[in-house]
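Need tokens for this chain, all 223 residues.
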Amino acid sequence: MSHLQEPPFAPASGTATRQRRPASDVAFTGTVKAIQARKGSRPAYARMEAGGSWASTITAELKAEIEAQTSVFLATANAAGQPYIQHRGGPAGFLRVLDEHTIAFVDFAGNRQYISQGNLEENPKAHLFLIDYAHRRRIKVWGTARVVEGDAALLQRLMPEDYRARPEQVMLFTVTAWDVNCPQHIPQRFEAADVEAALRTRDERIAALEAEIGRLRDAALPA
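Here are the structure tokens for all 223 residues:
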């Protein structure tokens, strides 16, 4: 997927004269920019910001990428700033894009620690990290998240069909900004199901070729 860019955040109401902030400011704080300046990367990122910076809405291309994933990492932090990263997985499509700003998924019953939910009740800021090892691509998504409990209709709408898991609640993630990293240093790995399918196709092709060789050999024998 190409690195698509969107216009920077529009100014808040009543601040039309204030300079618009690039979406990357969600991560590029003043301290980060100072380090970039000290280490020589600030000019390149300043040009990026002038060109529109990161995207702030979900594009059709990003939607396709998100809904193809079978794994995601959710990062939260409590009121004291203590971070926590939790893995969530399911069949392709368990991550759903509801609109250009909202990602949703069913929170399946697990070990019942509820650390992420507790963190979000204290601090709604969250981060989604998606990594596609086969294509060596990673997507970083900043935003806020909340847990929806007791909404049976939403739970049913988002629950993957025929998936053996017990749905407990729904996680709604509102996107503030997103960016795609370069593939550098990402090891290439493949899903077991994809490898099995490729091997099955290979074996079927080998069997067909062996059958054809046998037919040609029999045809070449003298009557």
